[in-house]
Amino acid sequence: MTFFAPFTIPFIVGGLFMFAVVALKWSLWIVRLPRVDRRLIRHNFFTRETLIAVWEVVRESLLHVRIFRVNPLLGFMHMSLAFGWFLLIVVGWIETTAYLGWQWVPLQGHVFFKYFMPINGIVGDIHLFEHLMDALLLMVLTGVALAWYKRVRSKAMGMRRTTKHVLFDRVALSALWFIFPARLVAESLTAAVHGGGGFLTGSIGHWLQTLLGADVLHSLYEPAWWFYSTALGVFFVAMPFSRYMHIFTEIPLIFLRRWKLHPTAERKSYDRFEVEACSRCGICIDPCQLQADLGMNDTQSVYFLRDRRYNMLSLKVANNCLMCGRCEQQCPVGINLATLRLNSRAKRRNIPHEGRFKYLRGVDHSSGSGRVGYFAGCMTSLTPAVQRSMQHIFSVAGEDVWYADRDGGVCCGRPLMLSGETDAARKMVAYNTDLFRRHEIDVLVTSCPICLKVFRESYRLDGIEVLHHSEYIDRLIASGRIKVQTETRTFAYHDPCELGRGCGIYDEPRRVIGAVGRLLEPRHTRRDALCCGASLANTVIDDGQQQRIAQRMTDELVATNCDTIVTACPLCNKAISRAAGQPTEDIAEIVAKNIIV
Amino acid sequence: MAKRVVIVGGGAAGMQTALELKSRGIEPVIVERDIELGGKARGWHKLFPSFTPAGDIMRPLADRIRAERIRCFYGQEVTAISSDGVMLRSGERMPADAVVIATGFTLFDAHRKQEYGYGLYDNVITSVDLERMMNSGKVLLADGSEPRRIAILHCVGSRDEKVCQKHCSKVCCITGVKQAIELKEMFPTADVFNFYMDIRMFGPGYEELYREAQQRYNVHFVRGRISEAAETINKRIQIKAEDTLTGRPLKMTVDMLVLLVGMSANYENEALASTAGLSLAPNGYFKANDSFLGVVRSEREGIFFAGAATAPKSLADTLAEAALTASMVDEYLKNRYNEK
């Protein structure tokens, strides 16, 4: 048997085209990887990581475990489509093999097996394979039904908003929606004409038989298979250029990630894997406060990645992000959204004029001496109560402290990085690194989570432990070096983005507050905490818009009926104070007020 | 029978309105939140641009209120306003034929600009604190010594979006010039610096005073806002600013930093306006009916404004406006009751 019929041509052509394009894309991306990345692949290829990656591909690309965790119904939709389709292919292959034995069957022979062998799959008296294949088809159809339903009523699927798609997506999406209903119709008609079929196609076939005459059935038979094959073909052609490219991109991405590749401050070929692994599911839209509070609908990660992928990214979209990390935290593919956003901002030629940095030469405003260094940060200089409180805590604890910037210091560099001035930021990093090293400190305490994040991520401070002051104070209390009295006030704590999602520090501030008074939590807290809107990362929104974001999040803190709002970031402090119309205190302040001398 | 007008607020605007109404044969009643009359001008040392002691203006006003036997209720807060009376916090209703809102303004709380260290550093004071010091006869540092270097910072809580105060408070520029001259007279050898964004000398004699401050008193004017202040070990104040005329950052240590605090709208305006069916301007002040002929009229018949309830105003403007308010109220009452 040749397993050829004219109707299979769209499928064959589409399929070949898709595999050619995907193969081309993969090889180009791999070839263009920087040498460091290629070395990482070679180095990690024959390790346990590869096996772990295989298991992760099963979990994520087929079962979609992470989406299940965010939204079970959405997870089921993705799983029934992906895993269901996968099983259809696998079981279909077993069916063919079981029926024909070991022999080469062309691809279309497997896919359109029912057309070529209408009565098959009988094991003993039972139509085992037919029932099995029907069950799998039903599973996929359930997923398709849910997808339709999600388009009409996204709220019912737990999403307030879904993604607006580009043309290729719409073509691919429509084709995808038709593939399985078309298969159902084609197989049912086959059952109606030839008999056979499982519980689903068989029953529908039987019903069609009673409904339509034999000549009508025969005239519909071929067109139905043509339609099925065309839907597949159209989908395959559109696929590499649509969001469905994620199906094939996520697999290599999982491997590359396990081999320790990651995006950096500079754009590189690896980013392609991350960008095209986005399925545009739109889970990132709802957590975005620019959407929820300001009604902006074009800047969320899904649109950012879409624009970047199709080379239509505007600087405005790249810059219009608070980098609060709320979306990244929920992304089912685990894309490094913040880093990609950052390296999109990096200006290609941002090498600044050397004269700009003359002032750095030989400058050292630091004072005091000790193994512990304190870097207040620029923002803390604008909230001097925090700095004072820290000085008081240091003196009560009897700590010898070297003050890096009490009389003026050099910026940590993070604001420059956030605005894409990576080269200028490097100057700051080099200056401060040298300063810290020269004064031979073991511990560096900072009051600003923005500085903290950059010290931990972009500085090479081996041998110097970098702590946020909440961690430092927590240690002082735990070790008994300072004692605090408990007061009757209640405190609502706001998790700063850079401290919480940025550095994973959630418990230390809470323990410190708990030692001083009663801790209250707002509705969104810890990993879900809202951003104060004052983020340095966003250079697009104006002051009034920042204020609206601050107001919404502050309302949640006020709703706890706390006596005092406490936070651990000078920038959040300013934003909340303004929105609440009442002073907000820093963790250091409430400790300094209650420290027993 | 004389028509009765309730005036909410017994500051300069309220007192002047009351006196003008009385002279027109109308019975004014003042409801004052504080325990005495005078409002914000009470305790002020001298007034710009003539250095007239504030008491010379305010005391006669209060004396005349007493002499005219105008009824005043002290320690009473108005919680609701309508054209036919007001509601007090005590729950008592005070009927009236018309109501004048003369509730003035609230001083900007300098604590809100934490970067200037008010309340944290001993030698950071506000312009209001300085007037009180001058009233007491001595302007000294926390340790009792005389300041030799003083910085006066304009626009603290004015024209500052970061604290939601977008408006200009109007009187601070000239107050800064006046206080600088007073400080120079007190301490002729001291250096006095004014840090400003723009100098707005709109009133008669203001520009002349500004020139005099520079030429005769050698007061320094630096165009640039102070970005932050820090306390040194010997309790001096180190300030950082940018001289925007030369385009250079500057750092300076002074003995005393005076913050020229601006005028904010009263917090209560929103609640009061909603009970009266009035609207507020975006900066929180009451919205006048129009900018030309209806500056003291509200959007509701029978409710009027006097003074800084509608916008920051100088004392001179407030007193002039209060006379207009009385005249408008008189006209309103005449039209209304002759018709009947």
Q: What does this 3D model show about the protein?
A:
The complex is a heterodimer of chains A (597) and B (340). In chain A, β6, α24 and β7 form a beta-alpha-beta unit. In chain A, the strands form 2 sheets. A 5-stranded mixed beta sheet of chain A has the order 1-3-2-4-5. Chain A has 27 helices and 9 strands. Chain A folds into 4 domains: 6-247, no CATH class; 270-349, Orthogonal Bundle (Fumarate Reductase Iron-sulfur Protein, Chain B, domain 2); 358-474, Rossmann fold, CATH 3.40.50; 484-594, Rossmann fold (3-Layer(aba) Sandwich). Chain A starts with 8 loop residues before the first helix and ends with a helix. Chain A is mostly helical. In chain A, α9 packs antiparallel against α11 (214-238). With 340 residues, chain B is an alpha/beta fold. Chain B is 28% helix and 26% strand. In chain B, the strands form 6 sheets. Chain B has a 5-stranded parallel beta sheet, with helices on one face. Chain B has a 5-stranded parallel beta sheet with strand order 11-18-12-13-14. In chain B, β12 (149-156), α4 (172-186) and β13 (191-196) form a beta-alpha-beta unit. In chain B, α1 (12-23) crosses α2 (54-67), α1 crosses α7 and α4 (172-186) runs parallel beside α5 (206-215). Chain B is elongated. Chain B starts with a strand and ends with a helix. The mean pLDDT of chain B is 95. Chain A binds chain B through residues 381-385, 388, 406-408, 543, 547, 574, 577-578, 581, 583, and chain B through 111-112, 114-115, 117, 120-121, 161-164, 227-231, 238, 240, 251, 267.
What is the rounded Rg of chain A? 30 Å
What is the molecular shape of chain A? elongated
Number of helices, counting only DSSP H or I runs of 4 residues or more of chain A = 27
Helix content of chain A: 55-70%
Radius of gyration of chain B: 22 Å
What is the assembly state of the chains in this entry?
heterodimer
**Order of strands across the main sheet of chain A:** 1-3-2-4-5
Structural class of the secondary structure composition of chain A?
Answer: mainly alpha
Largest sheet of chain A: 5 strands, mixed
Average residue pLDDT of chain B:
95
**Which residue ranges of chain A are poorly predicted, with pLDDT under 50 across at least 5 consecutive positions?**
none
